Amino acid sequence: MSEQNGAVNLTIINNIGTIEFYHPKGNSLPGAILRKLAKTITEAGENDEIRVVIIKSRGDGAFCAGASFDELIAIEDYDTGKEFFMGFALVLNAMRTCPKLIIVRVHGKTVGGGVGIASAGDYTFAHQSASVKLSELALGIGPFVVGPAVERKVGTSAFSAMAVDATNWYDSEFAKVKGLFNKVFKTTEELDNAVSELAGQLAKSSPEAMRDLKAVLWKGTEDWDLLLEQRAEISGRLVLSDFTKNFIKKFKSKS
Known about the structure:
This protein is an alpha/beta fold and 255 residues long. It has a single domain, classed as 2-enoyl-CoA Hydratase, Chain A, domain 1. The chain contains 11 helices and 8 strands. The strands form 2 sheets. The protein has a 6-stranded mixed beta sheet with strand order 1-2-3-4-6-8, sandwiched between helices. The chain has a two-stranded parallel sheet with strand order 5-7. The longest helix has 20 residues. The chain is globular, with a radius of gyration of 17 Å. The model has no long low-confidence stretch (mean pLDDT 95).
């Protein structure tokens, strides 16, 4: 995968597996990146050298701009639409079933699928600039696939607010109060130090105990393989609407 089309890289240092994803358009998530990210998370979970996983994105701009508009507007049939949104389902389920605890580092604005990744982290650190938005309804879709992960973290009321008010940015303080972010920092240095410190502690902890804790933390999500596929089917149908096509065309003409 060339850098122009994005990248997903895994590095292992001192039993810490760091997964970094990148795309030149605001760290957005085209289908190939989603599947590579899901595969890399699964591989990290199976690697005995890794005891804890960090997920981050490259750069100092957006943490994640969400779904790739270039791919969304190119979808012309239901099967292709479902397949695209299944990419998000694969990532969330990979994070859910990974036997290692996952730390997510959020450094900037986060949209849609990026909010899902932040929500699926077992512990999420963020920079104070890391505002979040579930913009899917404005596109004529709705946050169906990421919804279970977000609602699990912030609760039904906050998820409803974010899902319905789809053009509004919710700041890092809101995300922290609602439980999406566990800790928020004013500087990148403080953020990185906190991520490194917790990852270092977990890398020295009992792998068996962390695996059992992970299972407890995710109790009640055993049906997500089917649930998220059903949600991908809803999004795959809605993305074909004239409303969504026209919205994306107008958005791209302004950018």
